[in-house]
Design goal:
- With about 375 residues, the protein is mainly α.
- The chain has one domain: Growth Hormone, Chain: A.
- Helix content is about 80%, strand content about 0%.
- The protein has 19 helices and no strands.
- The chain is globular, with a radius of gyration of 20 Å.
- The two termini are about 35 Å apart.
Length: about 375
């Protein structure tokens, strides 16, 4: 919840901050891209987690992420706001990566996707708190800053982790072999990493753009207030929580590939249609698209840790997340420039659906099936 709140904070508030600082849509896209470029901070941090353990890095991130992110409340300029979030958000992402790593390492082989779905549901609550805080932005032109102060609530999570978080048992067991594994990465390992990076790059090029510009679309084209934007976001994304549970269970029972390859492009197309419609139909398309993405998420997300050995799992997660964020940068900058030129939201989003479609083809033809297999069995085949 803490990691998800930090990761959602800038996305949900940038449209309101941009009004105070008089920033254009392309400026918002560039700012969001800079924030995402901060992902490079994650790489040395997750490497430390592979070398020294998950616990110390997770605790440090749980403290640092909310404190740094809360500095957005005192931003004197858009540049300062972007700068603080370009540091705070990657710290939250590092925590998010390591949570997923520990979950995979601690779960039995037939529950890894289901556990990934459950974690995503809880993350949704954390992101939902950020969305639910949006009505604070209606109090005045500068009141969006109050939402950044809410980040300090997550200090209580840092206190709890400091007291009670144990080290991953799998990391402790495999620590002696970790150095040898990191020094000898096979071509198969690099191939798996390349495939996953390609898929997350293409899908996030679409998802990041939709998430950033949805609030601006609702605010400008549909005339929604901050409270109504929050209601739309919560209402249309909540059914995805059910999809996460269903998708996680189905991915563990029936397999990962078929879900990821079919539902990702369907969800992308439905969400794009929500930018081309209005009224109840817009809400229905957004709900259906979110549900499709929710069902597909556990099946694809669980691959990010399953295909890599314990000594490299955190580093691989950081590289994959970096690829996803760079995909978001490409989508955001490109979409912002095109939107400023006068092209409609619906046209831009429909064009971006090409990314998820190509990604689904990679999943279908190039991803292995990992359901019902132990982590050691999977990684030994690399």
């Amino acid at each position: 919840m803490s990691a998800a709140f930090i990761n959602t904070l800038f996305t949900q508030t940038v449209a309101f901050a941009a009004d105070e600082f008089n920033v254009s849509q392309s400026g918002q896209g560039i700012g969001a891209s800079v924030v995402r470029f901060g992902i490079i901070i994650c790489l040395p941090l997750v490497a430390l987690a592979d070398k020294y353990g998950r616990r110390p890095v997770m605790i440090a991130m749980a403290w640092a992420a909310p404190i740094v992110s809360s500095l957005g409340a005192i931003a004197p300029s858009y540049v300062f706001l972007v700068g603080t979030q370009a540091i705070g958000r990657p710290l939250g992402l590092t925590l998010d990566i390591l949570i997923a790593v520990v979950a995979l390492e601690e779960m039995p082989r037939n529950t890894r996707a289901y556990a990934t779905g459950l974690l995503a549901v809880i993350s949704g609550i954390g992101g939902g708190i950020a969305v639910g805080s949006l009505p604070l932005a209606d109090r005045g032109p500068t009141s969006w800053r109050l939402i950044y102060l809410v980040a300090l609530v997550w200090i209580f999570v840092a206190i709890a982790l400091t007291k009670w978080l144990p080290e991953s048992e799998r990391f402790t067991k495999h620590q002696k072999q970790a150095v040898a594994i990191r020094m000898k990465l096979s071509s198969a390992f690099r191939g798996q990493l390349g495939r996953i990076c390609s898929v997350v790059f293409l899908t996030n090029m679409y998802i990041a753009t939709v998430s950033i510009f949805q609030n601006r679309y609702l605010k400008d084209d549909r005339g929604y207030s901050a409270a109504l934007v929050a209601l739309f976001t919560i209402t249309t994304s909540s059914p995805a929580s059910l999809g996460l549970i269903i998708g996680g269970h189905f991915a563990d029972e029936k397999g990962r590939r078929i879900i990821g390859a079919t539902l990702v492009p369907i969800g992308a197309f439905l969400l794009a249609l929500s930018f081309s419609t209005s009224g109840a139909i817009m809400w229905i398309f957004a709900i259906a698209g979110g549900l499709a993405f929710g069902i597909s998420y556990p099946a694809l997300a669980v691959y990010r840790g399953e295909l890599f050995p314990t000594g490299s799992r955190g580093t691989a997660g950081g590289i994959i997340m970096t690829s996803a964020l760079f995909g978001g940068i490409v989508g955001l900058v490109g979409a912002g420039l095109v939107l400023d030129s006068g092209l409609s939201y619906g046209t831009v989003m429909l064009c971006l659906v090409t990314g998820p479609v190509i990604a689904s083809l990679i999943v279908w033809f190039r991803y292995p099936e990992t359901a019902h297999r132990d982590l050691d069995e999977i990684s030994q085949n690399l």
